[in-house]
Specification:
The strands form three sheets. This protein has a three-stranded mixed beta sheet with strand order 4-3-5, with no helix packed on it. The protein has a three-stranded antiparallel beta sheet with strand order 6-8-7, with no helix packed on it. The relative contact order is 0.10. 21% of the residues lie in helices and 31% in strands. It is built from six helices and eight strands, in the order αββαββαααββαββ.
Length: 185
């Protein structure tokens, strides 16, 4: 994937910026370009099931979202049945070549919205969020996974009106502050 995204950069050398000698090289694309390409591949990743022996072809599981899913659904031939038409057109090997450039995965990623005791993950319930934020990553819609939020009144004792006393001490008053915080349901 990275090879296709490489860009050619050139630099001119010569008197007063003339391009008498030109040096060119292939350079890696920007981090953003690579990230966008990986995100696109991730969203089109193919879920497969591979035997533990490693000697069979991967079985494409039905929950994938590829554009050529009808041709890939049953890549592993059934015992005793060989589709000669498929084999003449390239058959499973043709599709395996396509899979060499695709992202594949064996198991689904966990959802971080729900509590998972197996890995000691608390989920997002009880997480603080920013109810006024619209596009930031701390907004309540994304952090609470669409479940909504509750407003919680919290009273804190903070140091305030601090003054420096000569020499080397700081004296502060204690102020009581009331805050309303959004907490995921």
């Amino acid at each position: 994937m990275l090879r296709e995204l490489m860009v050619e950069k050139c630099k001119c050398h010569g008197m007063s910026g003339s391009c008498e000698i030109r040096t060119c090289w292939h350079s890696a694309p920007s981090f953003r370009t690579v990230g966008e390409a990986l995100k696109k591949k991730f969203s089109h990743a193919i879920r497969v099931d591979q035997s533990n022996m490693g000697n069979g072809m991967p079985l494409i599981l039905p929950d994938h979202t590829r554009r050529y899913d009808n041709t890939l659904r049953n890549v592993r031939p059934r015992p005793g049945r060989v589709n000669t038409n498929r084999m003449k057109r390239g058959g499973p090997r043709k599709h395996l070549n396509k899979m060499k450039t695709e992202l594949i995965y064996y198991q689904k990623s966990p959802t971080y919205c729900e509590k998972d005791n197996d890995v000691d993950f608390p989920g997002t319930a009880g997480r603080y969020c920013n109810k006024t934020s619209v596009f930031a990553i701390d907004n309540c819609e994304s952090l609470c996974c669409g479940r909504g939020y509750n407003l919680r009144r919290e009273v804190k004792n903070l140091k305030c009106n601090c003054k420096f006393k000569w020499c080397c001490t700081v004296e502060c008053e204690t102020c009581r502050v009331e805050e309303w915080n959004a907490v995921c349901k």
